[in-house]
Amino acid sequence: MGGTNTGPEVAKVKSICILGPPGSGKSTLCRLALASPRDTDYTHLSVGDYLREICSEWKRGEMKTDVDYDVLAEHLRENKLLPADVLIPLLKKRMGEHGQRFETCWLIDGFPRTPQTARAFDAIIGRPVKVIILECARSVAETRFLSRRREASDDKKRFDKRYDEYMENMKAIRVYYEDIIETTYTDRPQGEYLADFVRALDSAHEDR
């Protein structure tokens, strides 16, 4: 998976993965939680936003990596999941840009989405200290997803595909990470689930 200078040393990387269906509030919760000073230094990484950023920089001629941009753009356009051998080196590169400068705990939202990428992440970068799963009623998640419309193609058909795919993949991920999972319910008032989310973050370090 590339040369020795493409990412951080595995032992130095700490991470918490944030999972939830589309519209469950993953990125929003991470931003809100980090808006106030915390005892632990966190760096937020939205995997979806990062991949879109790579494509945008490539189109402007600003990004140069070994990735096949046509493959990446196609997967994003068709809403297909990237294979582990493409995605993990990209995450390792991104995390390495910060990991060598200061000690941080990464909040990785929207990842992992398959058991295969979970196993590859653990082997190459390091097992997360906790996996926080956001539970949200489908109707609430759908309303949020359609109201935000981050992309022009975000419609009910796309929501249904992503939601059903998420629910199916989560069966194996829940088993794989069963000893480090904590659940937060996000179809309640924001103040309530934000408080629960922050407690889950803090407890990840208390448990270590």
From TrEMBL:
It comes from the Eukaryota. InterPro entries: Adenylat/UMP-CMP_kin (IPR000850), P-loop_NTPase (IPR027417). Gene3D superfamilies: P-loop containing nucleotide triphosphate hydrolases. SUPFAM superfamilies: P-loop containing nucleoside triphosphate hydrolases. Keywords: Kinase, Nucleotide-binding, Transferase. Pfam families: ADK (PF00406). Signal peptide: none annotated. Belongs to the adenylate kinase family. This is Adenylate kinase. It comes from Apiospora aurea.
